[in-house]
Amino acid sequence: MFGSDEIIRVGMIGCGSNARGHMRRLLDIEGVEIVAICDPDDAAVTAAGEVSADIAKARVFGDYREMLADVEMDAVEISTPHTLHYEQIIASLAAGLHVLCEKPMVCRSADARAVLDKVEETGLTLGVSYQRHGLAPYRYCREAITSGAAGNCHFVSCVQSQNWYRKQVGDGTWRSQMKWSGGGQLNDSGSHLLDIVLWMTELSPVEVFAFQDNMGSEVDILSAISVKFENNALCNLAVVGHAVNFYEEIVLYCENATMVIAGDEVWRWEDEVKEVISSDQLGSSPSPDANFIGALRGEEEIQASPDCALEVARLSEAVWESAASGRPVATT
């Protein structure tokens, strides 16, 4: 662990717009230096240098393997196309570096298990950038369920809509290409939805039945998913990648309470009276970057662990298999 007065040296694998958000958050944390950045796209590197004069002074690489070999660092943050994560995580851990990786951590459950083995072997810290683990409304609902106050959760209903098809498929981005994305909306924004439902409820899926529509693209755009959990709880998830707006709502039906996450509020019923719990009441929401650095300093636990990412990979694989076969599929 790093002392509060020690500098933590971070390298960035990926310099796209998402990575630049991570850079800004890291630079706001005292005692953190970004010492190297890496991206094969010169325009992305240039944009990263414009974030801060400190980043402009960092060493620049086009190949992450050269960066790992040539720069003394303590940690890396990975924000690259999804299918590249696995080899970049394994190489970074092998180089003795702590890792914060964008979601999805990996695209296959077999790779997730290999990552978990490598983390255990090295004893290093690995976090996944599922930022909702730090957001107050989701933490409130998780605490209500895991503490027993809300009772057992027996049904979950959630929907996520986004103007994903036009922006990704229409513009031919890497997210719309299977070789880079490993899947469509389900593996992108939808990954957050699967993760947070599993994390808040601590339910384990046993069977999935799903329909998907690629709408003529390489990857899934629309997903209608039904899940059965090990305690016979049920869940309906709708991932709508062809909409004109972003909208998300999660409803948790528990024995003693119904809770709805609506934006930065939680609506709660324990009878027919609705209680609105505002963002002011819910408290602050730390970022994955702040949580990662805090974990390296021994001040807190990683909020989104590789175990969470394994559960998302297991569920995602079952969804894709069920949609392809037209049959219910047991999770493995």
Concise account of the structure shown:
By secondary structure, the chain is α/β, with parallel strands linked by helices. It is built from 13 helices and 15 strands.
Keyword list:
332 residues; alpha/beta; Rossmann fold; Dihydrodipicolinate Reductase, domain 2; 2 domains; 6-stranded parallel β-sheet
Structure in words:
The chain is an alpha/beta fold and 332 residues long. The protein folds into 2 domains: 8-130, Rossmann fold, CATH 3.40.50.720; 132-281 and 305-330, Dihydrodipicolinate Reductase, domain 2. Helix content is 36%, strand content 25%. A hairpin with a 4-residue loop joins strand 13 and strand 14. The longest helix has 20 residues, at 306-325. The radius of gyration is 20 Å and the shape is globular. The two termini are 35 Å apart.
Q: At the first level of CATH, what is the class of the largest domain?
A: Alpha Beta
Order of helices and strands: EHEHHEHEHEHEHEHHHEEEEEEEHHHE
Tally the structural domains: 2
Strand content bin: 25-35%
Tally of individual helices: 13
What is the topology, as strand order, of the major beta sheet? 14-13-12-11-7-10-9-8-15
CATH homologous superfamily caption of the largest domain:
Dihydrodipicolinate Reductase, domain 2
Helix content: 25-40%
What is the third-level CATH name, the topology of the largest domain?
Dihydrodipicolinate Reductase, domain 2
Unreliable spans are none
| Named CATH architecture of the largest domain | 2-Layer Sandwich
Total DSSP E strands = 15
Termini, distance in Å? 35 Å
Q: State the shape.
A: globular
Radius of gyration: 20 Å
Described by strand count, sense and barrel closure, the largest sheet is: 9 strands, mixed
